[in-house]
């Protein structure tokens, strides 16, 4: 795939209608794009006929930031735009089976009908379930990597034949988090959990207070004010605990007419102000830092709330007014987001390193946007390509104005140079060979072998950076 490069390659003999009907597909925030021939499907049979006879790649909703879904000049199987969106709940087994067009929101709503929920999820729900699973999409807390909940999957091999795998198959753990190297995946079965209410606490505090405040919580995420004191940055801390009787909603915040009150008001709306007045980013944050503000809000979440992990108030955040601020000016719609995983016990060190690094880059007129997100994945995933395969990690999310996305790649490279065991997010990291060390050559070769076993003729074409990382272009042993 070529970033910011629309140079079409020579059409391949296998490609159908290549010149006639190409369209441009874009990654989220439109930084990566490629020209493809689109294909939508209404049945597994026609999909199987298609993959047997063509070279192709798979696209979900094309919401990955890093363009992992884009392989230019190819037939693209547009899963998110197809109608294979079944979603069947088995309430006794507490599982749900869904298709490649099913979105996360659809899956969550279907589960709710049976008083069930997903164990964990990312903060946006328009993605396809399968696109999210195969890129290692995560939330935070236990079982944070969504793919940990998968018990079975079926996919089509290069002959269009159905292959079904479950957790007891040795290749299962490679196939389910395989970022476009196994596909199309045509169904997945996930475990679900009973509905539950949580005590959600949100503080504005200092990093030095985090350990004490998060004690006893079952899930923690924090967001760092990037231009605050690098020795002890200002953070917004969010924890979840099992809701207990007697613990009620509470709110402690400074008087709105004090400097600290005004700063709190600004910080809580920071993402909107940041968009409107980018030049004020650093001075506003320095002011908030000096005022040393504190606040605490406790909410008891509604067990039927679909996005309680990210927005503890009832209903979806997008359903509340003023929508123009929550929608149009939120970082989701205005910033490029790059993320990677670092070992949890080194997260604070990495964040402080990033703060010092970006402050030096002021002379280059680069400013991080919004806050630095840190989600704690508190257990180990059994999936070799999950961020937390080696142990608990912190998923670090960096944001910048879209035109500045390449600076985030540089930051990723600096962190990779300074720290060991930095692992990729397959929908957000720049996919570079420096990740090879933390992924392990043995695991990489297992996925490469699996891909070659099922697609010996090479008709499934993953993204170019993925091909390079897995060395998929090397001749097959038999050729
Ligand atoms: C606003 C926003 C918020 C996000 N929040 C989070 C978050 O909270 N946590 C997090 O971890 N990530 C998050 N992400 C990242 C996002 O979850 C992933 O990038 C996800 O893959 C996007 O899903 P998609 O359906 O758009 O897949 P695409 O981007 O279209 O595809 C991703 C990969 O999946 C493959 N693929 C898709 N469908 C199939 C199939 N049927 N068979 C085989 N391969 C397939 C593609 O080839 C590609 O390699 C966010 C992204 C956005 C835009």
Automatic annotation (TrEMBL):
Which keywords does UniProt give here? FAD, Flavoprotein
Listed GO MF terms: FAD binding; oxidoreductase activity, acting on the CH-OH group of donors, oxygen as acceptor
The UniProt entry, under InterPro entries, shows:
FAD-bd_PCMH, FAD-bd_PCMH-like_sf, FAD-bd_PCMH_sub2, FAD_lactone_oxidase-like, Oxid_FAD_bind_N
Superkingdom is Bacteria
| Residue span(s) of domain FAD-binding PCMH-type | 31-195
PANTHER family recorded for this chain? D-ARABINONO-1,4-LACTONE OXIDASE (PTHR43762:SF1), L-GULONOLACTONE OXIDASE (PTHR43762)
Q: What is this protein called?
A: FAD-binding protein
């Amino acid at each position: 795939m070529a970033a910011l490069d629309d140079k079409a390659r020579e059409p391949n003999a296998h490609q159908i209608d290549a010149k006639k009907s190409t369209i441009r597909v874009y990654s989220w925030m439109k930084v990566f794009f490629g020209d493809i021939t689109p294909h939508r499907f209404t049945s597994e049979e026609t999909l199987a006929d298609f993959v047997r006879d063509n070279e192709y790649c798979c696209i979900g909703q094309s919401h990955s930031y890093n363009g992992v879904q884009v392989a230019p000049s190819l037939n693209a199987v547009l899963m998110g735009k197809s109608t294979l969106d079944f979603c069947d709940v088995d309430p006794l087994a507490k599982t749900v089976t869904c298709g490649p067009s099913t979105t996360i929101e659809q899956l969550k709503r279907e589960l709710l009908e049976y008083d069930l929920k997903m164990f964990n999820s990312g903060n946006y729900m328009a993605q396809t379930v399968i696109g999210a699973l195969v890129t290692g999409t995560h939330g935070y807390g236990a079982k944070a990597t969504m793919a940990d909940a998968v018990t079975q999957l079926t996919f089509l091999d290069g002959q269009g034949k159905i292959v079904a795998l479950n957790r007891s198959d040795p290749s299962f753990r490679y196939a389910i988090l395989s970022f476009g190297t196994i596909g199309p995946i045509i169904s997945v079965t996930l475990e679900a959990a009973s509905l539950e209410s949580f005590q959600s606490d949100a503080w504005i505090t200092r990093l030095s207070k985090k350990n004490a405040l998060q004690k006893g919580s079952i899930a923690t995420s924090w967001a760092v004010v990037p231009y605050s004191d690098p020795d002890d940055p200002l953070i917004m801390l969010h924890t979840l605990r099992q809701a207990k009787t007697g613990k009620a909603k509470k709110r402690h915040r400074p008087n709105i007419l004090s400097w600290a009150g005004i700063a709190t008001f600004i910080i809580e709306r920071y993402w909107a102000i940041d968009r409107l007045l980018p030049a004020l980013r650093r001075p506003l944050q320095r002011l908030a830092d000096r005022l040393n503000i504190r606040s605490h809000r406790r909410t008891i979440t509604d067990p039927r709330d679909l996005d309680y992990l990210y927005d503890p108030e009832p209903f979806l955040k997008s359903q509340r007014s003023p929508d123009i601020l929550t929608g149009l000016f939120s970082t989701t719609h205005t910033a490029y987001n790059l993320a990677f995983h670092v070992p949890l016990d080194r997260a604070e060190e990495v964040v402080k390193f990033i703060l010092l690094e970006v402050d030096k880059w002021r002379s280059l007129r680069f400013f991080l946007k919004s806050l630095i997100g840190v989600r704690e994945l508190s257990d180990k995933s059994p999936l070799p390509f999950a961020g937390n395969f080696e142990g608990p990690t912190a998923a670090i999310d960096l944001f910048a104005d879209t035109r500045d996305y390449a600076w985030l790649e540089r930051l990723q490279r600096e962190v990779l140079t300074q720290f060991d065991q930095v692992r990729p997010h397959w929908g957000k990291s720049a996919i570079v060979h420096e990740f090879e060390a933390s992924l392990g050559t043995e695991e990489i070769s297992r996925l490469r072998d699996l891909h070659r076993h099922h697609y010996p003729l090479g008709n499934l074409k993953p993204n170019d950076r993925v091909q390079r990382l897995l060395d998929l272009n090397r001749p097959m042993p038999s050729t």
